[in-house]
Amino acid sequence: MVDNKIKQLLENKINILEPIKEFTQFETWWNRNLAAVIVGDCPYSIWLLVYEPKKKKMEEVIGKFAITNGYDKNSLENSKNKVKESINELNGDNPILAIINTDENILKKNIINEPYIIRNEIPHHNLSFTRRESRLIYHYPYYPGADNSSTNSTFTYMWRDTWIEEYDETYTVAEYPDSPDDYLKPLDIIKIRNEVKEEYFFAIYLGKKNCCCLKPDNEGVRLENWDKFLENAKGELTRYHLVIPFIKWESIIVNIARSVASNYKKGKYGHCYNNQEHYVWEQITGISYSQEFKFERFLAYTFSKLSSFVLRKEIKEDSLVNLKEELIKSQKNFEQLEVENIFRIEEIIREIKRSEVEWKAQIVVPTFPISQCKLM
Hints:
By secondary structure, the protein is α+β, with helices and mostly antiparallel strands. About 30% of the residues lie in helices and about 30% in strands. The strands form 5 sheets. A 6-stranded antiparallel sheet has the order 6-15-11-12-13-14. It has a 4-stranded antiparallel sheet with strand order 1-2-3-4, with helices on one face.
């Protein structure tokens, strides 16, 4: 029998209105506030509920995911077994596979999107100020009488004077939070507009004002501090947060270390295939994906043969993929990266983590008693 308080919370906050047959609260390595709910009356439906309490300046997260495959919807007993199976999968190396059907292919853009990944803007301020500037107005030659005669072949030329002109110039500077840990969790993806390069920069936030990113300077993946990443930034700062992890955090950290130690993608940066966004999504989700540079994709689809020749590769940004296969392929790719100094990987891992206790303290949601938890 489901407690009336839980039933009321499910109806009001999660919009589950069907009869509740079973409610199971559980925890995994990535979240300690999870629940599975069996609802309906033959056929039965299974919902996974994910809750992240409000932390610092990050709002609470409530995720609701349907488990639709792999069980007999007309059997309550079979539905209960599916819940147990899903809990085991959610505690595995690739928790997302408990939710996304691996028996069929899915568009990349439907995976790298809500409800699996939430997006929100981090507040910033634009500061405008006016400064008195001066510039030299250069003198230039002119030909007296040239405007009045088109027949004269020779003119006496003279020089205009030069002078310094003063004027008011208005500048706009974006000011971003100095304490990003208040707005971001480690392994969140961040996106910002860089005015000098006139494109969006992406990075993986590692905590304590440190990031991992790929820059268009063709020097490969590197670690970078928060202030350096925000140089020449202007406009909205966007956060992408995975409600359910695609890859175990320990594996991501090791893969980041391999990428940095091997200068991953050095000399291979490309706006169409190997840009910053491709890298961060590949590292965090196992899927190389980018929403930027849509014009190139348009050319590829419109002039497939020509673009294949010019770009040397078929564009597959919005192609159908099997998530399980993509995760396996991505992991194998990182494992095969050539690193000259194997000890460098361990150094980078220590640099990212600082210490095991500090890393886990930042990233794992603390346990809340049922009486205090807004979901349970």
